[in-house]
Amino acid sequence: MKLSTSLVAVKKITSNKLRSTFADDEIEKAAQLILDSEGVINPIVVRRTSLQSYEVIDGDFEYYAAARAREIDPRKGEMIGVFIIEPENEEALTNQIQIFRQQKSTISEKTNFNSIDFEKFLINLEARFEKITNQVLEQATANVKLENEIKALKKQIANIYEPLKVFNKLGKVEIANKLRNAGFAPKKAEQIAESVENERSKGQFKSLNDVVERVRIPHGKKMNKAISSEKMLEIVDLWSQN
């Protein structure tokens, strides 16, 4: 029998040991090392629980480090090298665990903590809770920021839509009055209002740019654009404030 590791998807592995048994900083450091080397020097020992599922027999710390590595970089941390206990190698692997890894903590085989272990467990748990709380707070802050940006964008869209409604819905006299308030001379305001009314009878304006392109008034022998793009921006800004 030749002993060799197998690549297994981290998400297919589970551990019966609590994550808070281990220091969060140590798991973070180990996860980065796994990503840097794209593997672990101390393979996890697992047993099949189904065709595509495994549970940790030895190497819980390595498992949680691998799980964290997958959270950081799902592509590089997707797989991890493991020894899979099968009927033909169970005795050999079990003996090696007892001999080569016996110096490791055996908390997974005990349910009683001494006072030092319990204090360490609480410290790790508090650190983990604080980290998760900060992550949730950061996400909530990001959500609020996104919501405010969406509201501002909706307001901007509404501000653009309102002037378009003026050109599409108001009567000639009302349009002329609003154009005078926007700085147009009375005669020019009336000319523009009349041109607006004539043009929209052919079809509603689809956008403010459509207004700029279609609405024209006589200038000598030519028909020039009645409202320039720059002036339309001023109109939008002015009418949006009213």
Structural class: alpha/beta
- Which sequence of SSEs, written as H and E, runs from N to C? EEHEEHEHHHHHEEH
State the helicity in percent bands. 55-70%
Tally the structural domains. 2
Count of alpha/pi helices? 8
Average predicted confidence as pLDDT? 85
N- to C-terminal distance: 85 Å
Poorly predicted runs are 107-111
- Oligomerization status of the protein chains: single chain
Could you tell me the strand content as a percent range?
5-15%
- The strand order across the widest sheet is 1-5-3-4-2
Based on Cα principal axes, name the global outline.
Answer: rod-shaped
The counted number of beta strands is 7
Largest sheet: 5 strands, mixed
Radius of gyration: 36 Å
List keywords for this structure.
two-stranded antiparallel sheet; single chain; alpha/beta; 8 helices; 2 domains; 5-stranded mixed sheet
3D structure, described in words:
The chain is of the alpha/beta class and 242 residues long. It has two domains: 6-103, Conserved hypothetical protein from pyrococcus furiosus pfu- 392566-001, ParB domain (Alpha-Beta Complex); 115-242. Helix content is 57%, strand content 14%. The chain contains eight helices and seven strands; from the N terminus they run E-E-H-E-E-H-E-H-H-H-H-H-E-E-H. The strands form two sheets. The chain has a five-stranded mixed beta sheet, sandwiched between helices. A two-stranded antiparallel ribbon has the order 6-7. Strand 3 and strand 4 (53-58) form a beta hairpin. The chain starts with 5 loop residues before the first strand and ends with a helix. The relative contact order is 0.09. Mean pLDDT is 85; it is low at 107-111.
